[in-house]
């Protein structure tokens, strides 16, 4: 299973916000830190805001910030919010055109595999994947690496 850039960028935004001063940042700063397209990131952040993962504020002093503590946001929450399709095989999707769909046991195997995958993602919070605060601040080139969120 491969996720879209939207899911990848959403995780990057949340990791950035977790270690940013006041857990806030502008889309421009986040895009620069991750060396990704600001336009693309803007779309991702809008979708994240619609899913209540972040809050956005316009104007001076505005930006993107966490809606809730990063320890309560799971990787599974993010992937579910950012992806539209988890049908790893056709018979798990809405349209089922497989000739053996009713007599094949593969659907159950793949359904359990997807359930297990999300069970694992639900065990990991943003805090878990972004635990190296100083390392992240350095990699993201924060000017004040010791600033506490």
From TrEMBL:
<dbReference type="Pfam" id="PF02082">
    <property type="entry name" value="Rrf2"/>
</dbReference>
<dbReference type="GO" id="GO:0003700">
    <property type="term" value="F:DNA-binding transcription factor activity"/>
</dbReference>
<keyword id="KW-0238">DNA-binding</keyword>
<dbReference type="InterPro" id="IPR036388">
    <property type="entry name" value="WH-like_DNA-bd_sf"/>
</dbReference>
<dbReference type="InterPro" id="IPR036390">
    <property type="entry name" value="WH_DNA-bd_sf"/>
</dbReference>
<dbReference type="InterPro" id="IPR000944">
    <property type="entry name" value="Tscrpt_reg_Rrf2"/>
</dbReference>
<dbReference type="GO" id="GO:0005829">
    <property type="term" value="C:cytosol"/>
</dbReference>
<protein>
    <submittedName>
        <fullName>DNA-binding protein</fullName>
    </submittedName>
</protein>
<dbReference type="GO" id="GO:0003677">
    <property type="term" value="F:DNA binding"/>
</dbReference>
């Amino acid at each position: 299973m491969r996720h879209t850039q939207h899911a990848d960028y959403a995780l990057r935004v949340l990791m950035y916000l977790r270690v940013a001063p006041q857990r806030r940042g502008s889309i421009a700063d986040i895009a620069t830190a991750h060396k990704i397209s600001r336009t693309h990131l803007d779309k991702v952040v809008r979708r994240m805001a619609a899913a209540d993962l972040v809050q956005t504020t316009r104007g001076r002093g505005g930006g993107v910030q966490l809606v809730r503590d990063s320890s309560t946001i799971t990787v599974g929450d993010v992937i579910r919010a950012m992806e539209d399709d988890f049908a790893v095989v056709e018979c798990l999707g809405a349209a089922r055109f497989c000739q053996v769909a009713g007599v094949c046991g593969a659907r159950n195997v793949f359904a359990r595999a997807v359930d297990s995958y999300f069970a694992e993602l639900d065990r990991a919070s943003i805090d878990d994947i972004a635990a190296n605060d100083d390392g992240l601040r350095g990699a993201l080139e924060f000017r004040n690496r010791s600033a506490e969120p």
